[in-house]
Structure formats: C-alpha cells, structure tokens
Amino acid sequence: MDPRVRDHAEILVDHCTSVEPSDDVLVQVPPAAEDLAVAVAEEVGEVGANPSISLRSSRATRAYLRASDPEDFECPDHELAEMESADVIIIVKGDRNTATMSDVPSDALSAYTQARRPIQEARMGKRWVGTQFPATGNAQKAEMSTEEYEEFVYEAVNKDWAAQREHQAQMVEILDPADEVRIVSGDSTDLRMSVAGMKTVNDDGKKNLPGGEVFTAPVPDSVEGEVLFDKPLLRHGREIQDAYLRFEAGEVVAHDASKNADLLASILDTDEGARRLGELGIGMNRDIDRFTYNMLFDEKMGDTVHMAVGKAIEETVPEGQPLNESSVHMDMIVDMSEDSYIEVDGEVVQRDGTFRFEDGFEK
Amino acid sequence: MDPRVRDHAEILVDHCTSVEPSDDVLVQVPPAAEDLAVAVAEEVGEVGANPSISLRSSRATRAYLRASDPEDFECPDHELAEMESADVIIIVKGDRNTATMSDVPSDALSAYTQARRPIQEARMGKRWVGTQFPATGNAQKAEMSTEEYEEFVYEAVNKDWAAQREHQAQMVEILDPADEVRIVSGDSTDLRMSVAGMKTVNDDGKKNLPGGEVFTAPVPDSVEGEVLFDKPLLRHGREIQDAYLRFEAGEVVAHDASKNADLLASILDTDEGARRLGELGIGMNRDIDRFTYNMLFDEKMGDTVHMAVGKAIEETVPEGQPLNESSVHMDMIVDMSEDSYIEVDGEVVQRDGTFRFEDGFEK
Questions:
Q1: Could you tell me which CATH class the domain B3-158 is placed in?
Q2: Measuring CA to CA, how many Å separate A264 from each of A66, A218, A292, A299, B89?
Q3: pTM score, two decimals?
Q4: Is the Cβ–Cβ distance between A103 and A66 less than 8 Å?
Q5: Tens digits of per-residue pLDDT, B271-327?
Q6: Burial tier of A187 (Cβ tally within 10 Å: 0-12, 13-18, 19+)
C-alpha cells in the first residue's frame, strides 16, 4: 500500500479525531478509497477502539433517489441510531465519476438532504472529520493525471498542522474581535456584514482535512450588498458557474448563475435558512496552489474568500448569538487574487490576495 | 447492468424480506457486489422504504483484526444500535479473494465473533436474508470461470421458490413428527439423535438465498456416535478437511481433521454450546449440482446432510424445548450419495441420495 495512505490514516485517527480506546468509530468511505479504509481500520485497531467501516456507493444512492418518490423520503432511523451512538465519525470523499448524481433531479436531492438532517445534526456534536481520497474521478475533474493529483492531495493533507495553525492565528487575531467586514472584488462584489459577537475559528485540519482557513459566522440579518462567486462549484455532480447573490437585511433578494441557475434556485428554496449566509471563511493554505473543483481544497486556497448559504457552524456562534439554521450548507468562492480587498472595521487587511502580515502587502 | 442482478435484487426485496413502505432496510454488501447494491437500492426506492447501504470491506476487517489485541474486542455500540433499529437486513457475501482472512489468527477471529454476538442476536429477530454475489474469488474457489459461476449462482437463486417449497414439504412431513434420526455413511459415520419436540423448517429461500433444505434442531443432549464430514468447509478463508467429531450425551468428546485441525479445535473451544449440535439439515435443491466450497450452496445439494455445531436456529426450537446457545454456528457436510442412508424412527427415508418419495428409491 502507498505509504502516504497510511500517513493520511494516522493523521485522521490521531490529529483529527483523537481516537481513544473503546471509542465507537464510524468510518464512511467511497469504494474507490478502500485502501484508506484498510489503513484507518489498522490505526483504529492499534488504539483499541471499535470501528464500523462502511463503503458508501454513490451509484446505489443515485439508484435509490431515481427510483423513489421524494415525498416518501424519511430519515432512516437505523442510520440515525448508529450516528447517535458513535463517538467518532470519519467521512471520506472520492469518486470514480464525480458526475454520478448528475441525472438525479435537484428537488429530489434537496428533499433527501432535508430528510437526513437529523443524521447530520447528530454528527455535529461529535468528534468528526471529512477528508478526500485522490480517486480517478476527482483527478479528472481537477484536470490532472491521477499521479499528479495524488501528489497534490497528500501535500495538502500530510503536513505540519502546528505550523499552519500559527500562520493562521495572525488572521484570527484580526477577525475575532472585529465588528464589520467588507469584501470587495472588481465591479461585481461589494458585500458588508457584521461579525460582532461571533467566534473566529482557526481551522488546523481537525474537522476538515486538509484544513487551512479561518472562518466565522455573519450576523444573519446584517449582510448587505452583492457578490459574484467567480469560482465554479460542484453540487451533486453538476457545476454552478458565476453564482450571483444580492442581499438585503441578510436575505437573498436576487440570484442568478451563468450555468445551472435552476439548481442554485432550488438549493436557495430548500428552507428559510438557505437564503441567508451561515459562514464567512478566508482561505490561508498556501500549499493548495490550484483550483481543483473541490470545495474541501478550493475554499482553503490562499487568495480566496468563501461564504456559505445555509447552516452556520455551531462553534462560530456563541450562546446567545443568532444561529442560522438550515439543512443546507453550500460554500461558494470569490477569487481575491486581483483587484480585490478585505476590509475589517475600515482597515484593509488583505489586498490582491496578500495579507497584512505577509511580505508584499500594499495598504 | 446484468438483468440477472436485477432479478436477484427483486427476489431479495420481495420474496425474501417482504420490504414495505417506510421499512428501515440495512444492506451490507461486499465491494465486489456493488452492482447488486445498486439494484437493491432501486428496488427499495420503488417500494418507498429507507435503505442504508453499506459496502463491507473484508480487507479492512482483516487489517483491524491483525492490528488489535483480541482482549480489547468489544461489541461496537453504534453497529448494535443500527441493527436494533433496522426492520430488514439484507446481507450479501462475495469476495475478490476468499483467502483474505487466512492470515488472521483463529483465536482473534473467534474472539471477534464472540464480541459481536449481540449484533448477530439482534438480527435474528428481524426479517433478514443472506445471499451470494458471484464474485471472482468465489468463482475461483469453485474452480469455475467467472461466467460459468455466474450462471450457476443465478440458476440457483432466480428460480420458482413455490415449486421448490412443495418438493420439500414431503420431507418436512416425515421429519417434523419424528423422534429419532440416524445418519449412516460408509464406516466412518453412524450418528443418532433425537429431534422429538423440535420443529422442521421448510427453507424456501427466505433467510438463505438460495434456499433448498429442510432443517431442524437435535435435542442437545441426545446426540451419540461419530461423524466424518467428508466435504471440506471454508472458515475465515481457511479450509477444514475431513472434520471428525465423536459425541457422547450430546457433547463432542473427540475431534480431528486432516487439514486445519487447530482451527476446528479453536472453534469448538469458543464456548460451551460450540461443542454441541445446533442444527440437522437435509439438502434438497437438485439445481445445485456441484460442490463449490461455499456452505450457502453446498449444504443445499440434493444428496448431502449437514450439521452445525453451535447455536440452534430459534424457529426450529419451540418454546419449552432446550435451545443450544453459542456465538458459533458452523455447518459441516456429509456426502450421502454412496453407501449411505438416513433412518427416521427406524425406517430408511433416503438411500444413496435418493429420497423415499423420489423415483429410483430402494428401501
């Protein structure tokens, strides 16, 4: 087995989820990542914990969704019981074909996500991590050979997370006590929001592997202005390009996209919270140096900002602050590398992708 | 997709487990059988039930078992919770390499089975079925090309189960009211047991697919004599050949095997019940016309008898009768095609593989 797979497994079990003896560990891995499932099983065995390892077939999910009536969707009680009873959850993505879900109607996908919301919520209270295996489909989507893509993934994943944490702490110090944030990019994006009272999290690769961002929650009603997400995003195997949102008093009042605008619309219509922002994130991982059509990596790129419509991440919302609820959490990215800046409480903290605390910053 | 896979899925969901709307259906399938997982997902979706579909990697289980200390084994609470909450369980076997478990110490395998006993017991109270996918490893083990083996499996599985049930009912009528059964084969096997008060079950492919046997439980203390299981059996990827057991007052008092006698010994040592018989079965499926090193099929062959050490099958033991408890249930086969007979209450009911109610029977 590729030794990088073993390194990846060790980081997942030790750094990300701190698996301890007797922990009940739920591992969900795509069939293409069976090697990683094997390596994780070995690590969990060495610790003396109890794994339940499950390869999840997106082909089977597609078949179920196409055969079902979306009105019949229910939360499967047995899956919920398993999730509620687990201590640690390790979820791996990776597809032989990233377009497997492309012929499932988007309303069925939204209804399915909605029905399974209790499972997602049960996970949120646990030690969990989501990560990526360099499967052939993801390599193809990234327009890379499988070998080059493997190198890309393992560079981003198997790294010194303590050093990354220190780098990011500089931005946490700026954002955590801040009131207002303004994101400006070209003529198309000028968005203001309050982050007052919210908590900025230093993502050092614990819940997302790779990590490499700092993120917080906007005050839900405070978002004003417009934003063009000029990096494409992949949702259920379909690509949304140039998503545009206009906000008033925190709510999306206009939206469009140059490709799959209907899919964007159906996601925004999922529930009340899907029309509000739940996250503001700033990418800071300089090792992720190219866009690969994969949000887990793309949102961590060093000169991007991302925002998610839908559910806020609970650890960013201290008790007593308003938390945006939704069954959706969809991240979208703005390229900040040119003609762009981030302002915090009236001061520019990043211009054209370079942070105030980095060499080459121009106020 | 091979249309025989869809037929197989339909029989599993309709005939075997009678899946109904809103049922929580747990589907466990090896990675080699992903096509069958897809077809089952589709059937379950059409019914309006809720599937949780899980590909189970024997490579991952092997890695876990080799890395663990058997003294640490615990029943994973999250897997137990999932099983307890399920309405229907569909379990598929099929391996790319049937020897995957061959380098796991047999005491680790026994301890693992023992630790997971509550999961197995939770399943027994549900609607469940175990079946086979014609994977390459199983074809190789059967000494057949994959294509020929696929034909063999689907002939045995996708068939008229009502007709098979009628054929078998003739043997149920003989065995169900009986007191004593005697199995004689050559010089090596002469075993007597009581089945008084036990229930004979007509296996028409509901819990095992293929089905094709009638089976009951011996009264645990009644088994006397010796038996040579002259068909080999595969256990955790290792082959036990010529298993020999001698019983006194129901208990194994001597045992041997010409290959992997240590594995046989460790299984008999698992617990108290592992040294007693839990099942007597009579194969009656004439469509299974060759031995394929696969108990699910081999035990259904028309001119064989099988017995299992370990746990009795609950539906064969009416309330008030003694039920043999164990975490083990290991079937072993006696070839009855030559120089053999089955006697029920002193009357020969099968000689050299031919039943009393079949053409060519000689008393």
A1: alpha beta
A2: 20, 21, 20, 18, 37
A3: 0.85
A4: yes
A5: 999 999 999 999 999 989 899 989 899 999 989 999 999 999 999 999 999 999 998
A6: exposed
Q: Is the peptide bond before B76 cis (omega within 30 degrees of 0)?
A: no
**Cβ distance A331 to A279 under 8 Å?**
yes
A 26-55 near B (Cβ less than 8 A): 26, 31, 34, 37-46, 48, 50-55
B304-310 and B277-283: which strand pairing?
antiparallel
Phi, psi of B48 (to 5 degrees): 90, 30
**B157 CB-near residues (< 8 Å, 6+ apart):** B8, B11, B131, B132, B205, B209, B210
Residues 50-89 of B with CB under 8 A from A: 50-57, 59-69, 72, 74-86
User: Where exactly are the structural domains of chain B?
Assistant: 3-158, 162-355
Q: Is the pLDDT of residue B363 over 80?
A: no
| Per-residue pLDDT, A302 | 85
Which residues of chain A are within 8 Å of residue B39 when distances are taken between CB atoms? Answer: 63
C-alpha distances (whole Å) from A305 to each of A124, A226, A282, A342 are 24, 14, 5, 9
Per DSSP, what are the bridge partners of residue A52? A26
CA dist A61 and A72 (Å) reads 15
Chain-centroid distance, C-alpha A118 = 19
Q: B326 near B272, Cβ under 8 Å? A: yes
Task: Tell me the per-residue pLDDT of B239-256, one tens digit each, with 9 for 90 and over.
Answer: 899 999 999 999 999 999
Query: B6, B20, B46, B54: best mutation site toward chain A, by most A Cβ within 10 Å?
Result: B54
Predicted confidence pLDDT, tens digits, chain A (363 residues):
999 999 999 999 999 999 999 999 999 999 999 999 999 999 999 999 999 999 999 999 999 999 999 888 999 999 999 999 999 999 999 999 988 998 999 889 889 988 999 999 999 889 999 999 999 999 999 999 999 999 999 999 999 999 999 999 999 999 999 999 999 999 999 999 999 999 999 999 999 999 999 999 999 999 999 999 999 988 876 889 999 999 999 999 999 999 999 999 999 999 999 999 999 999 999 989 899 989 899 999 989 999 999 999 999 999 999 999 998 999 999 999 999 999 999 999 999 999 999 998 987
Give the phi and the psi of residue B147 in degrees, each rounded to 5: -65, -45
Asked whether the predicted pLDDT for residue B262 surpasses 80, the reply is yes
What's CA B179's distance to the chain center, in Å? 24
Whether the bond into B220 is cis, omega within 30 of 0: no
Query: A83–B78: do the CB atoms touch at under 8 Å?
Result: yes
Instruction: Return the number of CB contacts < 8 Å for A and B.
Output: 163
> Which residues have C-beta within 8 Å of that of residue B347, sequence separation ≥ 6?
none
Chain A from 104 to 143: CB within 8 A of any B CB: none
State how far residue A34 is from chain B, nearest Cα, in angstroms: 7
Q: Quote helix, strand, coil % in chain A, to nearest 5.
A: 35, 30, 35
CA pair distance A274, A250, nearest whole angstrom: 11
Optimal mutation site among A44, A68, A126, interface B, most CBs of chain B within 10 A: A68
Reduced to 3 states (helix: H, G, I; strand: E, B; else coil), residue B41 is helix
